[in-house]
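Follow-up to my post from last week.
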Amino acid sequence: MLQSTIESLLEKALSAAGIQIQLDYKITPSPRKEFGDFATNLAIAGAKKLSRNPMELAAEIAEKLKMGGAEEVISKIEIVKPGFINFFIKDELTQKSIPEIIRQDQRWGHGSSGKGQRILLEYVSANPTGPLHVGHGRWAVIGDVIARLLKAAGFKVETEFYVNNIGNQVEKLWESVQAARARKPTPANGYGGAYIKEVKGDSKEDIIEYILSEQKATLAKLGVLFDRFFNESELHAKGEVKEAVSRLEKNHKTIIEAGAIWFKSQEMGDDKNRVLVRADGNSTYFAADLAYHLDKFSRGYERLINIWGTDHHGYVKRLKAAVEAMGLPADRLEIIIGQLVTLYRGNEPIRMSKRTGEMVSLAEVIDEIGSDATRFFFSATDVNSHLDFDLELAKKKSMDNPVYYLQYGHARICSILRKAESEGQGSSTKGQEDLSSLTEPAERELMMRLLAWPRSVEEAAVLRHPHRITEYGKELAIVFHHFYEKCRVLGNPARLTLVDASRITLRNVLELLGITAPESM
RNA sequence: GGGCCCGUAGCUCAGUUGGAUAGAGCAACGGAUUUCUAAUCCGUAGGUCGGAGGUUCGAUUCCUCUCGGGCCCGCCA
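User reply:
Got it. Predicted complex:
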């Protein structure tokens, strides 16, 4: 909002200076308040390209900015050392922007850069052979928040869960269930978890259905709902697996060896070729996955995003290679790799073994610490980093726990607004109020943070980084609590408007994270 | 042996795609409550950004090497 104002001023100044070349520069919030509100590296970035001295270029740009009327909204423009240009925003511009937050309300922070493009986001896609584990929980939350982010950025998003409802592991599962019912030992390579005894159903289809419904129930506890569950069997039924293989054959990307059909992935950078159709005539998981992506592409999405666990990272290269070999636009396929979660109880890691079936299930975690805390902690770190998740910390209803820090901020705001309402001051001025009295540092700081919200959403969406939103939320809560200490709100209409704008922003933060925004705590 | 990811304060993590004196929270220490929710706030202390080179005006960020940790390398899915 403020940045785009500066950007257009800069563009005007550039053309006034007769600079036609496209320069790659940035406008960023200043790292320290002595450097103003925003800074640009334009002169440094442009100096080399224009073979000019950066300081001189900065001086010229600053001059053109002033001539171009920048001083209506900028109180000071300053050039510093290597060639940074620092901007000090006039309070009036900031103050005028706040009522817009209240007008936009639910829409505040939402943008249109996605232009309605269709995206298919596939995530979780756990095998229907057992309960979801905490790793699935992490992908589920990350996926759900990314879907919300992309929608907020103006994309049309559909979410999908791929169900491997046929194949070897289904046979193993069925054998394991039958063995358990007959009180016989778990078959070799079977499933030995305690849950096997609980599985209901009298056919393969029934037990898959049962386990899937348990998985869905767990996801629902987290508030994660999918637009579609896509069964692998459908690909076979529709002949798409054959279709995928024959596409590769047609493009001369296969060889036959030892009775099997192989994808020549080696010539596309893979360490070895991969089997598509086994010697016994059955297709592999890989072939079905190709068919699945063929199907996705045929549905006309602009972009396909998959979230996979790190245990599948090795398949990225070969899937992309195969997609390309089928003649499909591999550059539209994006795969996010999520690292695993290690559970802790205090300082003690909780050991888990799939083999012995000693697992803490996702459902147990959610039951123990609640959906809000689970969602927050799974959203709060870069999915590309391993996550140490401390159940004791997540359970604490105290300041140690950032979830409550944000929620408390919201509740505190609501309490103020309730009080104002009951005292007849009105909880909101619907953006009509004159905010020129808001000039104190704590007020300025809060306003600046509020106005940074749309950009945070946009960046989080582009980067597919939900943790950007939790970071923003923590920062906003900090400046709000700071403001609260410094500034008495009741009896001050301008501050009431600011508080209402804070309420909307904080609520939208929590909404994007899928976390409840309590009105009292 | 090969591939991908991670390594930042005692702990858990950010770091705006290469910018200015590297930031939060917790833990530690010291303060604040007749005032709109103290689930809060203020202050102090805490760092060779795993290590070594390189690229350039400038590197936590990019490249090479190296050390440590995680995950993977099936005609399983």
